[in-house]
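Q: what sequence does this backbone want?
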């Protein structure tokens, strides 16, 4: 079960899971055409896939999806709470509606997914996995995308607490919780990102352009999926697409250890060689 499966990382995970691992995939997204096209591509290649319209902001939609999937396809072995959106611009220029959308998709969407699917996973004895999409941004600070960075810190915290709660409730032997931290993976997230309507429009758009340049050097989503599945299979908790995500985690630990104030990044954003 992959939310936000219509593009980028979600689509890469779906392609890898269906084609390389032989998994049956449920492709959930608000972009119906995108998931229908991906479903056609996968089934034409002999893989098992269904597409479904689902807005992760709606708790009832996730509950219905969990119910329908259990009835029609059986137990979900891997839930990927992947749907996410970006937002550029100064925090004080951010439209309230954009802030709310981001919180609803990136944070509430993960919660609704957990609430709909986790009890079913815990209630049946099979092995199952839950992956929540945090980010390299979940262990760092970065200007001109504060709502996004905030949401990715939140998802990481949710995932760490969930890991503990599954153990506390006695289900860690069969329900496995893992945090996914992509670094730079080719996707549509920067094109579809929200901007600002008032204030410093140029700062927001310059940041979008800088991030779009990063996309050119970003990892292929199917390659990223392979890395995530391999790390998950070896029991890692923090699934990292690239080595520099681990470096960012170490840098974060160092900042906190030495209680250093955040440092403003300088120069162009680049994707470090791995
Ligand atoms: N691409 C990267 O380098 C990168 C880095 C770090 C973290 N991430 C995280 O990975 C996840 C996937 O991002 P991506 O880069 O592949 O983005 P993307 O924009 O390519 O794909 C996101 C998908 O989510 C869908 N979506 C948006 N709102 C939705 C909603 N309300 N309900 C259901 N689906 C919805 C979109 O239609 C789209 O198909 C996000 O959570 C993102 O924060 C991505």
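A:
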């Amino acid at each position: 079960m992959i939310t936000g499966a219509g593009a980028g990382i979600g689509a890469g995970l779906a392609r890898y899971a269906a084609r390389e691992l032989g998994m049956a995939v449920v492709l959930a997204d608000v972009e119906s055409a995108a998931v229908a096209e991906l479903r056609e591509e996968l089934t034409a290649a002999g893989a098992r896939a269904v597409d479904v319209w689902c807005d992760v902001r709606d708790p009832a939609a996730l509950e219905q999806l969990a119910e329908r999937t259990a009835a029609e396809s059986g137990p979900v072995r891997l839930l990927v709470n992947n749907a996410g959106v970006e937002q550029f611009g100064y925090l004080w220029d951010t439209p309230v509606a954009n802030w709310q959308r981001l919180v609803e998709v990136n944070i509430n969407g993960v919660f609704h997914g957990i609430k709909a699917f986790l009890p079913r996973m815990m209630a049946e004895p099979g092995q199952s996995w839950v992956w929540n999409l945090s980010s390299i941004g979940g262990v760092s600070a970065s200007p001109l995308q504060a709502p996004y960075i905030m949401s990715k810190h939140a998802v990481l915290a949710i995932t760490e607490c969930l890991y503990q709660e599954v153990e506390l409730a006695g289900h860690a032997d069969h329900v496995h919780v893992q945090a996914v931290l992509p670094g730079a993976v080719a996707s549509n997230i920067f094109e579809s990102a929200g901007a600002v309507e008032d204030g410093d429009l140029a700062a927001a758009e310059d940041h979008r352009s800088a991030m779009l340049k990063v996309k050119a050097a970003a990892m292929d989503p199917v390659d990223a999926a392979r890395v995530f599945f391999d790390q998950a299979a070896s029991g890692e908790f923090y699934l990292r697409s690239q080595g520099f995500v681990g470096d960012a985690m170490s840098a974060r630990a160092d900042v906190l250890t030495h209680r250093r104030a955040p440092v403003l990044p300088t120069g162009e954003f680049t994707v470090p060689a791995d």
